[in-house]
């Protein structure tokens, strides 16, 4: 009986972890948009960029971009602020040349580079 309880706990933990991973993979666009809003992007711009990056980059490329962004913010004196040029510069740190190209295209198409009212 005790062995059965241990196995069922392990099973529940495995299901929970799998669910979290699938949730993170299911909607990268929303995760990107939320992150960008946290850095000061306007909600519509954030969603636009998220949608475009999700459509044009693989999950692996998005993960690399996320890791580069996180690493670039360590030791930053203004961690809550991200400019459009910061975002593009961070994307250039990813070794895949498609990533900065798609980030630049998304930033331009979503008005981040041309909107002077944007906090970016």
Description:
There is one protein chain. The protein is mostly helical. It is 72% helix and 0% strand. It has helices at residues 2-26, 28-38, 43-56, 59-73, 84-92, 98-109. Helix 2 runs antiparallel to helix 3 and helix 5 packs antiparallel against helix 6. The termini are far apart. The model is unreliable at 4-23 and 116-120 (pLDDT under 50).
Could you outline the blueprint of secondary structure elements for this entry?
Layout: H1 2-26, H2 28-38, H3 43-56, H4 59-73, H5 84-92, H6 98-109
Task: Describe this structure in a few short sentences.
By secondary structure, the protein is an all-alpha fold.
Q: What average pLDDT do the residues reach? A: 75
Q: Roughly how many Å is the radius of gyration? A: 18 Å
Q: Give me the strand/helix succession.
A: HHHHHH
Strand content: under 5%
Features:
0% strand; single chain; disordered C terminus; 72% helix; 120 residues; globular; mainly alpha
